[in-house]
Amino acid sequence: MKALVYHGIGQKHWEEKALPQIIEPTDAVVRIIKTTICGTDLHILKGDVPAVEKGRILGHEGIGIVESIGKSVRNINVGDKVIISCITVCGSCSYCKRQLYSHCNDGGWILGHKIDGTQAEQVRIPHADNSLHRLPEGINEEAALMLSDILPTGLEIGVINGKVQPGQTIALIGAGPVGLSALLASQFYSPAHIIMIDTDDNRLHVAQQFGANTIINPARQNVVETIKELTDGLGVDVAIECVGIPATFKICQDIITAGGYIANVGVHGKSVELHLEELWIKNITITTGLVNTSSTPMLLKSVQSGKISPEKLVTHRYPLSEIETAYEVFGNASQEKALKIVLTAE
């Protein structure tokens, strides 16, 4: 089969690899229908995730058809169309019993990280019963693909960790795919005012279409002063960091109100400054996390009922064989006006 293989910092190639095989009785092999590229994949190529070894097939998002199953798989059948969760879940370890699936002793984020991933024609999925979600008939495949990672991430690590409540003023820093996913998910909780902060005017325009009440471009506006004006000098109740760089984490610290929540979603490749000399007296809470995907079944029902339409995040589509071109487009997202890119197997 063909797959996108990591060969070191800045190096990847679409090449021949052996077909995946059932190794454990709880495994399934899935033929990819659609996959996509995540910002985390770009972090891997920058060298921010050193655990990824040369020769690894990248990718941790996808939908597909189950080709084969191990003898212990009970809830998934050959021929099922499924969402591949970015988090692999054994379901029985101490972390899984606490719903901390991202820290599963025999799983967590391993696809495209510690084992071969989904940017390929086929992929092996460990613990298939807990790590695949059967798709209902008629559901939009592109919407379903957004449930592999970014929508659960925005909801769980941004909105739920940030304790978003009705009537609050919240700010999202970073209008990329995860930031926009958090924007969509935040509306489940009816905040009174949603502020989106980004230097990309196109993404800010999209954020307005998705429900942001106010947009701020730090390249032209003073973020702190603008938010003080909007909040009578108090600051925002929740700041959700969706980029993963020191500057955006500092913005969160600068705009949070007393008793507020800073929810970090972005993947950080460098250390950041924590200004405890200013924050210690403000009774704030800072949360971090890797998505557990415990919300995926609920989000799937919400998509099925039409309450949320994450397929709106898709801006570009390519055949899977053109994945290297797709990476170039995604890596130049601002110029290309790219959000999520769908790669479809021929």
Automatic annotation (TrEMBL):
Q: Which residues form the Alcohol dehydrogenase-like N-terminal domain?
A: 25-136
Q: Which cofactor does it need?
A: Zn(2+)
> Is Oxidoreductase there in the keyword field?
yes
Q: A single Gene Ontology molecular function, please?
A: zinc ion binding
Highest taxon, organism lineage: Bacteria
Q: Does the keyword Zinc apply?
A: yes
Which ranges carry the Alcohol dehydrogenase-like C-terminal domain? 177-295
Question: Which UniProt keywords are present, listed alphabetically?
Answer: Metal-binding, Oxidoreductase, Zinc
Looking up Pfam families in the UniProt record yields: ADH_N, ADH_zinc_N
Family assignment from sequence similarity: Belongs to the zinc-containing alcohol dehydrogenase family.
List the protein's name. Alcohol dehydrogenase
Organism listed in the record: Xenorhabdus mauleonii
